[in-house]
Design goal:
Number of domains: 2
Low-confidence stretches: none
Structural class: alpha/beta
Order of helices and strands: EHEHEHEEEEHHHHHHHHH
Mean pLDDT: 97
CATH class of the largest domain: Mainly Alpha
CATH superfamily of the largest domain: Dehydroquinate synthase-like - alpha domain
Helix content: 40-55%
Largest sheet: 5 strands, parallel
Number of strands: 7
CATH architecture of the largest domain: Up-down Bundle
Radius of gyration: 19 Å
CATH topology of the largest domain: Dehydroquinate synthase-like, alpha domain
Length: 354
């Protein structure tokens, strides 16, 4: 069963992929009842389709929504317990019947989430409007096909948003206080690739060299963030769940505000990163480079550009504190700190996040 999102299902690349499978003698059906921020009802419908079709595996095709949903469907199709029993909490993954997990082949068509190299999927619980991480080691795809030509049709806005997601993964992994030097090294090079290639990919979607480097960086970010994420994601997740904003673009909006909020804890590390990237001016130079990259690629400077207002601020703050990524922030995230970041991002005053 090929799993993709509703928009991608209508595009020629999906029809081409299905046609190639059939030409190769592989029966395939398409499931595309997947929205941009996938919810549990998408997963439930996919499980029903998987079982009804007596399928033996999943081709997860698309961006983060298609990849995450496809992996979770393959994971859940043989389980008897409800989805939320496998949230990434402690050792809950051991509750699963591992032998029933169907294999997945991941084919990313964006360069952002890196879900193709991950062991989890992010699904929104509709009753609480909360994004939750479903995890199991065997959710790792058996095979990944990264072809930059599949990303060439992405419009500039999606190229920007997915690229900022990859940058947030690399940046937050690098800054997370836990010890994982291998992941940290991957994050540093992933950051370099993004700064060098995201503007090119946004300006010219047919630049396959830039597209290829962005695909590498996306996978690198997902490999790196096993070290940790932080307040960018902790705030982006509830905003996305409540306002249905694009996840990567939301990360891009929050990035400079979280950078400034964490300055006291990360300034020496950011100075080293700036030096590797060839950016002068230490922390302030890196902050300027982030702001310039956002402006160059079209990231809104403030949350208002995403249609976000103050109406749900208290809910967002409360949700950010219990988000599984919050614990990786270099400065412990408190209610006051989360509100300070949100208010700064809403007003567009970067210095106010300090």
């Amino acid at each position: 069963m090929l799993v993709t999102d509703a928009g991608l299902a209508k595009l020629p690349i999906t029809a081409t992929a299905v046609g190639l499978l059939k030409e190769a003698g592989l029966p395939v059906s398409v499931f595309s009842d997947v929205q941009s921020n996938p919810v549990e009802s998408n997963v439930e419908a996919g499980i029903a389709a998987f079982r009804k079709g007596n399928h033996d595996g999943v081709i997860a095709f698309g961006g983060g929504s298609g990849l995450d949903t496809g992996k979770v469907i393959a994971f859940m199709a043989g389980q008897t317990r409800p989805l939320w029993d496998f949230e990434d909490i402690g050792d809950w993954w051991t509750r699963a019947e591992a032998d029933t997990i169907a294999p997945t082949v991941a084919v990313p068509t964006t360069a952002g989430t890196g879900s193709e190299v991950g062991r989890a999927g992010v699904i929104t619980q509709e009753a609480t409007h909360t994004k939750k991480v479903i995890f199991h080691p065997k959710m790792m795809p058996r095979m990944v096909i990264c072809d930059p030509e599949l990303t060439a049709g992405m419009p500039p806005s999606i190229t920007m948003g997915t690229g900022m997601d990859a940058l947030a993964h690399c940046f937050e992994a690098y800054c997370a206080p836990s010890y994982h030097p291998m992941a940290e090294g991957i994050a540093v090079e992933g950051t370099r690739l993004i700064f060098a290639n995201l503007p090119k990919a946004v300006a010219n979607g047919k630049d396959l060299e830039a597209r290829a480097h962005m695909m590498s960086a996306a996978a690198m970010g997902a490999a790196a963030f096993q070290k940790g994420l932080g307040a960018i994601h902790a705030l982006s997740h509830p905003v996305g769940a409540l306002y249905n904003t694009h996840h990567g673009t939301t990360n891009g909006v929050f990035m400079p505000y979280v950078l400034v909020f964490n300055r006291a804890a990360i300034e020496p590390k950011i100075a080293r990163l700036a030096g590797f990237l060839g950016i002068t001016g230490g922390f302030d130079g890196f902050l300027k480079a982030v702001l310039d990259l956002r402006k160059q690629t079209g990231v809104p400077h403030a949350l208002g550009g995403l249609g976000v207002d103050r109406g749900k601020v208290e809910t967002i703050v409360e949700m950010s504190l219990v988000d599984p990524t919050a614990g990786g922030n270099p400065v412990p995230l408190t209610k006051e700190g989360s509100r300070k970041i949100f208010d700064a991002a809403l007003s567009g005053d970067v210095a106010a996040a300090a």
